[in-house]
Write a structure and sequence with these properties.
Order of helices and strands: HHEEEEEHE
Distance between the termini: 18 Å
Structural class: alpha/beta
Strand order of the largest sheet: 1-5-2-4-3-6
Shape: globular
Number of helices: 3
Length: 159
């Protein structure tokens, strides 16, 4: 998740830098592509040691299950673990996984994933497997207007 955020920030910064340089002096497209590629490689190299320091092992849990997200009305309420719920964090509710378990939830339709911490119980519908915060849900959703989609859940084991 952090890596994708860093890459997104780097791409945004490059786009801003590119628009600024284009306004001052127009470069051929081939040179701009080379500059963007070099910056992306440099940014990846900066984040790689962090990822290498924390090796993660993913243990498959469930595939092809439905995920949904919390309604805004739950903001500020206590979760089953005692924490205050915040729809802007990366947390989730699951009926069986222990509190504090880190899981990777992958949207099976587009391959996007997010890491969340289980801190609540739910969903209380037998068809649904996991409730994500709105922020986590929207980050991996391919259709922002849908309320559910099929996901793969993996338990993150750090070494």
């Amino acid at each position: 998740m952090k890596k994708s955020i860093y890459v997104s920030i780097a791409v945004f910064a490059l786009a801003a830098l590119f628009s600024f340089t284009v306004q001052k002096r127009v470069k051929p497209v081939s040179q701009c592509a080379a500059i963007a590629k070099t910056a992306t490689v440099a940014d990846t190299a900066k984040t790689a040691p962090v990822a290498a320091a924390k090796e993660v092992k993913l243990k498959p849990y469930k595939k092809n299950v439905l995920a949904t997200y919390y309604a805004d009305k739950f903001n500020g309420r206590k979760t089953s673990s005692g924490e205050r719920f915040d729809n802007k964090k990366y947390t989730a509710a699951h009926m069986k996984l222990p509190f504090g378990t880190m899981v990777r939830v992958t949207n099976e339709a587009n391959g996007k994933w997010v890491d969340v911490k289980v801190n609540d119980r739910g969903p209380y519908n037998k068809k649904l497997e996991i409730d994500l915060t709105k922020k986590a849900f929207m980050e991996i959703a391919s259709n922002k207007t849908s309320g559910t989609f099929k996901v793969k859940i993996e338990i993150i084991e750090t070494k």
